[in-house]
Amino acid sequence: MTSALQAQGLGKKYGKRWALRDCTIEIPAGHVAGMVGPNGAGKTTLLKLATGQLEPTSGGLTVLGGRPGAGPAQLAKVGFVAQDTPLYGALSIADHLRLGAGLNPRWDAALARERVAQLGLELSHRAGKLSGGQRAQLALTLGLAKRPELLILDEPVASLDPLARREFMQGLMEAVAAHEFSVLFSSHLVSDLERTCDYLIVLVDSRVQVVGEVDKLLATHHRLTGPRRDPDRLPADQHVVSARHTDRQSTYVVRTDAPILDPAWTVSTLTLEDLVLAYMSKPALDRQAALEVRP
Questions:
Q1: CA–CA separation, 105 vs 196, rounded Å?
Q2: Which stretches make up the ABC transporter domain (predicted)?
Q3: N or C: which end of the chain has fewer CB within 10 A?
Q4: Cα separation of 101 and 251, whole Å?
Q5: Count of alpha carbons within 13 angstroms of residue 108, beta-carbon side
């Protein structure tokens, strides 16, 4: 099966600053992939590269087996909902649906009108008069009615209140279940990832820190708590993600495929939030060292 997205050594540079660097990932088709990281980590840059809005500085990228933005056929496969849900404020909802039909060869008019009706919106309403949640839902409707094979969303609920955020994500997941397409979305809200995604990408300082299926990542990451111990005394197959120490106690988050048999450790499982925060809180010094080692 063709991957939804595949990147090898992908990088994007603005002037002297790398917004994304050495990105090597593969997202299999059929997943709902969530990408999380702090502001400025490179999330939006990666999504714009995937939609063909930007050209890479280094490395390569394919989306659904093709080059992003390479002609009408490739563009028709990919839907995109931007963070600011750009709509034409002076145009009505009906106008937006007509534009969608004219621009997208696989446009599903019935789906679009059904969603608008379910949302309780009037076709005559102007987009500029809609609430933030309604605008986000209209943008999602336009993306879904395109009938993409991959829908990309850039922090689609960042500005919404909790109720509107839940309704948006619920609508997205209902559409995924009904139409079976792949999704890649960015968020800084771990709760969104926990409810929806089965594939995870963590970006920090313009680099991918971890990527993979959520179930497998949770199964191979553990919290170890026990008497203070330096990291060089841990087995070689236990990759240290994060560490905290007191005078007498050490707490590590480690990644390993092997069972942890040392009786000195209390071993506990991680939530998805624990996992994400462990990678996001790795010391800046460690990340700077990685930058110095890898050109």
A1: 29
A2: 5-230
A3: C
A4: 56
A5: 17
